[in-house]
Amino acid sequence: MPPRVNASHWPWRNSTAAATAWQPTHSWAASWPSVDDAEIAANRNGASNDPKADAAVRFAAAVVRQRGRVSNDQIHAVLSAGYSDAQVLDILLAVALNTFTNYVNEVAQTEVDFPSVQPLRLAA
Question: pLDDT tens-digit profile of 81-106?
């Protein structure tokens, strides 16, 4: 998966209530592949300004919101946007990795040393 798309779901994933402490880290990390502020803002809201990346970010958001119970229509949408089965698996693995690292950092009470960002409250 292209680094830009891989990084695009990070800010959204960490906008969920369970991961608000990690929003600064992942918003900062999203800037690595030259993602502009407007794209990071869209990503924090579970979307993207790029149509193909939007399908991936929306799919990742659905996986998190629905705890993995995505519909066939949601899978079809990401595949129709041009992602392969392997790339859909990459999206799932990225969500799983971010969930895992968020939990590890919460248990370890890791100090966040990045500039703060305003947490978002997302609709269920």
Answer: 999 999 999 999 988 988 888 888 88
Cα–Cα dist 113/121, whole Å: 22
Using alpha carbons, list the distances in angstroms from residue 33 to 7, 29, 30, 49. 8, 8, 7, 15
What's the chain's length in residues?
124
Stated pTM of the model: 0.69
| Measured distance CA(5)–CA(107) in Å, rounded | 28
Counting Cα atoms < 13 Å in the Cβ hemisphere of 9 gives 30
Fill in the DSSP letter of residue 98.
H
Q: Give CA–CA dist 89/106, Å, rounded.
A: 26
Q: What is the pLDDT of residue 75?
A: 98
The tokens 């041009």 sit on which residue?
A: 82
Report the candidate in 120, 60, 118 with the shortest Cα–Cα distance to residue 89: 60
